[in-house]
Amino acid sequence: MSTPSQPSTVITAPGHNHGPxxxxxxxxxxxxxxxxxxxLAAQSTVDPNEINHLIGRTxxxxxxxTPSLLRQxxxxxxxxxxxxxxxxxxxxxxxxxxxxxxxLDGRMVLNGxxxxxxxxxITAIIGISGGGKSVTLKHLVGLMxxxxxxxxxxxxxxxxxxxxxxxxxxxxxxxxxxxGALFDSLNVFDNIAFPLRETTQTSEAEIHQRVMRALDEVNxxxxxxxFPDELSGGMNKRAALARALITRxxxxxxxxxxxxxxxxxxNAIHHLICDTFMRTRTTMVIISHAIPAIFxxxxxxxxxHRGKVRASGSTPAIRESQDPVIRQFIDGDVDGPxxxx
Length: 341
Description:
Elements: E1 9-11, H1 21-27, H2 33-42, H3 51-61, H4 67-84, E2 93-104, E3 107-118, E4 122-126, H5 133-140, E5 148-153, E6 156-157, H6 163-170, E7 173-176, H7 188-199, H8 204-217, H9 233-245, E8 251-255, H10 263-280, E9 283-287, E10 300-305, E11 308-314, H11 315-319, H12 324-331
Parallel strand pairs: 1-11, 4-9, 4-10, 7-8, 8-9
Antiparallel strand pairs: 2-3, 2-5, 5-6, 10-11
């Protein structure tokens, strides 16, 4: 039988500084100062909020980096971040849950969940099936109301807000559903444009520009008139990611973004998430069963077990945890404290 759930632990590691992407590429030796200055000059008419978002693409367009070298650089810089990151220490939480309980069909799915999601980081939520991961995600975006406890988003109690205030907060959050949840009756362009048309006053000219850029960024250029049933599983996931990012959210929640994909496409999706994060620094929360692969693509890990947070902390600390429940899950052992047979 499973052992009783233990109190959650928080594990931290030494801190690490995160600077602008162009400066980090320069410091890592991928480009020289003249090349960076040329790229910045080429972006002199670009909205300052977009500079970090576009710097890599500008360097490629100027011939200072190849696309493959840029991908390599982003992964190496990201890996260094995750290896040296501090987990929660010194990083303000943008989302948090305190004492959250939820019963479904008479079963306690969340049994006093306490967690914090650090801002401008990728957090993975892992655990065995039925441990409350997807329910936790739905609470964070306001799709479910807790029976007890508080959920804070950017310092605001989510369930103390009026309907109008809740809608305003939700505009800062995007959710990537497990199956992508594209609209079958809309082509790829209209699927991605949908949030802009429904929640903003963006002109059609700007919508066209932003959607075409988003398609290029997820390697779906030329696919705008295809319908979801004409796309592969990996293409559907990429289109759904583009739709989730089109409103430039501060937070994106991803529910099993690689579920049902082969190892090559799974790796490609993880690379795309890394590329997106390194360009935008969007706070991301990923529910994943892709163990141990997910440890290469996140700064911070939360382990849910029996409706509670078993542990939370930096990725290296969780990966090396000697907690028998966490060890059994990571190693995929049949024998251990979690009785599954």
